[in-house]
Specification:
The chain is α+β, with helices and mostly antiparallel strands and 156 residues long. It has one domain: SecB-like (Bacterial Protein-export protein SecB, Roll). 28% of the residues lie in helices and 40% in strands. Strands 1-4-3-2-5 form a 5-stranded antiparallel beta sheet. Strand 3 and strand 4 form a beta hairpin.
């Protein structure tokens, strides 16, 4: 009887990979009394670094607008390096698109809130995201397109 090796999932590092803030209409935007409309775009990307090591990057772009004027634009790439061993190939895509983003997301929320506050605006607190639902939606779209390849999840 063959022994099954122990499954390993470790968080090696969580970090900000890239951060951008634009306030192109400053200082006039600070005089606006109308609450801005917030738009969020999310993308998940993963990279196989070396044997058993993966980087997962969440990219979130937040755009705040009033009427047709941009108040601010923030883009953050929050990343994590994960050690993953002895996991079936079929389980890797869900782990990289559900489990890893769930680990990274709280750090991204804090980074976005902090940078927006430091820019002089009220904090933007992102609502929780159901990464499993995003993954399943991506899987359904792949099936509808006749592909069995699930692409990384995105949300607009």
């Amino acid at each position: 009887m063959k022994e099954q090796q122990q499954r390993i999932f470790n968080i090696e590092k969580i970090y900000v990979k890239d951060l951008s803030l634009e306030i192109s209409n400053a200082p006039l935007v600070f005089l606006e009394s109308e609450a801005p409309k917030i738009d969020m775009q999310l993308h998940i990307n993963d990279n196989h670094i070396k044997e058993g090591m993966y980087e997962v990057v969440l990219t979130v772009t937040i755009t705040a607008k009033t009427k047709n004027k941009t108040i601010f634009l923030v883009e953050v790439q929050q990343a994590g390096v994960f050690q993953i061993h002895n996991i079936e190939e079929a389980e890797m895509t869900p782990i990289l698109n559900i489990v890893c983003p769930n680990v990274i997301f709280p750090y991204m929320r804090e980074t976005i809130s902090d940078i927006v506050t430091r820019a002089g605006f009220p904090p933007v607190i992102l609502n929780p995201i159901n990464f499993e639902a995003l993954y399943n939606e991506s899987k359904q779209q792949a099936a509808a397109n006749g592909s069995d390849q699930v692409t990384n999840a995105s949300k607009h």
